Model the fold of this input.
Amino acid sequence: MLTDCAKKRWLILGSVTFVGVCSLPLVLRKNTEVQDRALGAMNQNPNKVAKVSRGERLSQEQGHSHSRYRDREYLATLSRRELKQLGETLGQTDRELGMILLELLAVDFGRMDSFATGFFEGWAKNDPKGALSFIANFGNQEQLEFKSQAHLVARIWAEKEPSSASDFLKHMYEVNGQRKEQIGDVLTSAVNVWSRKAPKDAFQFLRTTAKEYREGPVLTYLAEYWANVNPIEALEQAKLADLTPLESNLLMDGVLRSWSESDPELTAAWFLEGVENEEQKYLGQAAETIARNLFETTTVDAVVEWAQQIQDKDVRKEALVGAALMWKTGVGDKSPEKVLGAFTQGLAAGDLVYQDALFESASAMADSKPEVIAEWLNGQEQFSELTDPVVHGFVSTLSGSAPFEVVLGWSGVIVQSELRNRQQISILTDWALQDKEGYLSWVESNQESLSESVIQALSF
Done:
């Protein structure tokens, strides 16, 4: 028999009926009734014998007081693990009492959260739709309460009925304007479970959802799962006419990156054959990931050969830099000498993409192992425009960490005068701001090594 207060809180959502938590004092419910029903639930678990005995003693000491404080005092004797187990039992056997205990525990979020997790997990095992309906309609209309529990319920439901769970949450997403983003996150939890079980079916469902939802992270998750099952099918589906360019690219990018983790050579081949030239510009991250994984299993020469066939120059650069960042110290095909040498040859052949690739690669290498770049540069027979991008990247990384005179020394070997002057002006300006005395002393001793442009720019 429900209290008058509880009767006022009956809510109906479609065919789902449940009772909400009453915010009024529990004046119509004796303290011992709450305890006795909770003890009965706990007694279903043999591990709770000690707690039952302690709870019975509390019940006898408290008599028939109506004090909510004493109810909380009793609940305080339970650990968070025990609260979660109690909640799970009540979620399956006595939801009305579970809702009352949620209210009593509200003063301590951590303990309430433990109880709520068990409560909604137990509820979801028998009635996930009812559990989600309750959560979606609990509290104010701006913030989704029991957020983590909503994700838990969605996953439990999707394990058994992914289509029903996703359809229900899709409807909730469409009608909850103020909490649309939060409901969308819960929907993604359900779709992720579905994607692991049947990615193509999950994709067909996603095509029925709102455009702004599909263009979120859900397609990236789907791509990862689908790539593990049937990457070719996923890539073919990504080219469907009813997908927006962004959706298509999100799916293709995710599939290619995930697929390359297990088979980089086949993924690299499909990228060249299956991706249209105009599509390449949206797949820079995929190209970079493929190049990294390809470099791990082959050689830098193989990566360079593959990257040279990418038509979009920005994507080609991303692929080359991605591979370069996988360099390893020492000798062999993955040494910095091999990487920088191969890129320098590419630049010598006239592909200016290698200029940026050399700069970014040298900068990244110098950030962790500056001695590697110094050794490579010292090993060059002569400096030229082919080595300038390496020196530029090296100097840019050293600035601010190495002594100014060391950085200026390296900047002096840049062959292109405009680039060299720009670097030296920047370094000297920083030096003057930080240590004017040291700056003036160096300039006085080395002025003859500076160009007229640098001297005029700094007003010596």
